[in-house]
Amino acid sequence: MKRLILLFSLLCSLGTYAQELALSNNYGGDTSSSKTVQSSNGDISQDKFVKHLDGLSNKRLHKYLSKKGVSEKLIQKGNEYFDKMWYAEAARVFDIVLEKTKVEHTLSLLSRAGDSHYYSGNLEKSYKWYNELYQLYEDEMQEDTFFKYTQTLKGTGKYRRAATLTKILRQKRDKPLNELKKLEVRTWKGATEVKIKNLGVNSKYSDFSPMFHNDSDIVYASAKDSSILTTRRYRWTNQPFLDLYVAKKKNDEGDLFGSKKFSNKINTKFHEASLAFSPDQKTIYFTRNNYGKRLKRGKNGINHLKIYRSQWVNGEWTEAVELPFNSENYSTGHPTISTDGKKMYFVSDRPGGFGGTDIYAVDIYDNGTYSEPRNLGRTINTEAKEMFPYVTEKALYFSSNRAMGFGGLDIYKSDGADEMFSVGINLGKPINSNRDDFSYIIDSTGVKGYFASNRKGGKGDDDIYSFTYILNLNAISGSVENMSTGEVIKRANISLYQDGSLVKQAISDNAGKYTFKHLDPTTEYSVVAKKEGFVKDSLSVKTKENKNITVFQTLKEQKKIENSVPTSKAFEPSNVYFDFDSYKITSLSAQELDKLITVLKENQYLSLKIESHTDAVGSKAYNKYLSEKRAESTRAYIVSQGIDPSRILSAMGYGEERLLNDCWDGKPCAPKQHRLNRRSEFILVSE
Fold this sequence. Notes:
Blueprint: H1 2-12, H2 17-22, H3 48-55, H4 58-65, H5 70-83, H6 87-100, H7 107-120, H8 123-137, H9 143-155, H10 159-172, E1 192-198, E2 207-213, E3 217-222, E4 233-234, E5 239-240, E6 243-249, E7 256-261, E8 272-277, E9 283-289, E10 305-313, E11 316-317, E12 321-322, E13 332-337, E14 343-348, E15 358-363, E16 374-375, E17 386-391, E18 395-400, E19 410-417, E20 420-421, E21 425-426, E22 437-442, E23 448-453, E24 463-471, E25 475-482, E26 493-498, E27 501-507, E28 513-516, E29 524-530, E30 534-535, E31 537-542, E32 548-557, E33 568-571, H11 587-602, E34 606-612, H12 620-640, E35 648-653, H13 671-677, E36 680-686
Parallel strand pairs: 25-32, 34-35
Antiparallel strand pairs: 1-24, 2-3, 3-6, 4-5, 6-7, 8-9, 9-10, 10-11, 10-12, 13-14, 14-15, 15-16, 17-18, 18-19, 19-20, 19-21, 22-23, 23-24, 25-28, 26-27, 26-29, 29-31, 30-32, 33-36, 34-36
Helix pairs in contact: 5-6, 6-7, 7-8, 8-9, 9-10
């Protein structure tokens, strides 16, 4: 994975072997995974000089290093390796210099040592040199190095430190910090638990990018050494070059067997990786180095990635041809084909995108031609790297190293179809880890599939894992009654909390009952029941393994006090508005919200309802989603300022349903008029 990323990454700089290979310098990402296929500057086994150094005993190495001028020569040699993208060799040389000589630990030396390990997949060693770099040269660190440092922090389990540094970085960029108030990653919560399994076909090298083929085959990319003779090595990671392999599915758990090279017509002496098949399985699209009779380099001197196509004719695959929207000067790779075969989604670092690598779409015409590529836009792409897309009838899955993930590349899901996708939601653990997780595919049942990861505990660099979703029956069912009369309480507001954070909300039905489904097993929750005119009640409950837990609550009627505050009243702070297509709290809105917070702190008997809205620009479905995010961010800000979460009765998003003016879809309106509709409103309620 790193290779693909690195390839794409050397172009964009991310990093895992598979990714390296996958996207030439940007095929993957900027983590320790070389998940991109980069320029192939070397194709021989480990450099003789590094071999010689490794062969010296400690005594002889110490004697060698004590000679005058040797340290400087080693640094020069390490820089030569680094400039050629031979990161495995560069890392070894820089380690020797930094750990065994008295040479000054300069900013340049520490940066290159950290980068060499980062691109070749050693996050622990990369963290060591980045951390020293931060301690010595904090104010002089480049922004991309700072970002890679935060990735190594998450990759080595230091999440809180990573969040703190991310906040510092965003402050330097003068960007909103509200989403960093909460360190936990927002993840997808479905009706299932996930069982994952490392597969027997994995090697000590990089194995990734699985793809369904026919009914019982899986085609994937691997750097496994299947040659009898000495195999050429990829300098970036000192592993063999990637080829495509095919294996058969063995059982319902997704095990594979009988792995063999996929096709001699498609595999070459350089990298072949991330692939997709047409619906009829007679056309394959795959990623390869820009390679004809020899490697070709762009104007920046880098060998980029391209997408190639081969067809199944007379029982064999034809010679591959490249697609017309490739370029000599940027990378194109990671194809996936829509279920009707009419669209291709792919990854590129072409100019005009939002980040390092973005996901694009093209139409596939019946005559074998293609439309111009279209960027999928801000709902999918960010300033980070998006890669490894996989499209189904109703969703797009992809990987990204965007901020506040678990670390490295995480896998995201965006609902939708035909280039209209919602904002991606992190699939959570155990699919994602603190390392690189990518090339996710799922079968037509929506229950089983495969993905790749370089997480700890695997067999090699990147490994392929199978997964199965298992029905999640964990639930809490409850009922609410009047303590004095024993009558059921209808329309009570029920809130579920975990570690002080609101997880879910419900309203009791006409029988006073409610249910919270799809909860985590063996987890402590708090259930808070509220109803106007009653004293709220809270109880703790712990879930079991796939069981429905039943709870019962009684609410005591409040004594009526003459001249009391009205049961509810609107509170209208001015200027609690949002920027276009954003749910971030602006500094002006924060000032207004602080007034509301003061009221709540001075009047402890008051609770709050939040109602958020959008303008009518864009689809109704997306605006509904955006308004819900605005309600969530408004609630999060208020809670972050010391307001008890249980005092917020609801935080609802209404999309474009409640416009304050007549700026409906299609009607020309001034920006200020649209802005009036991008708001949060509040209702104060006395208990």
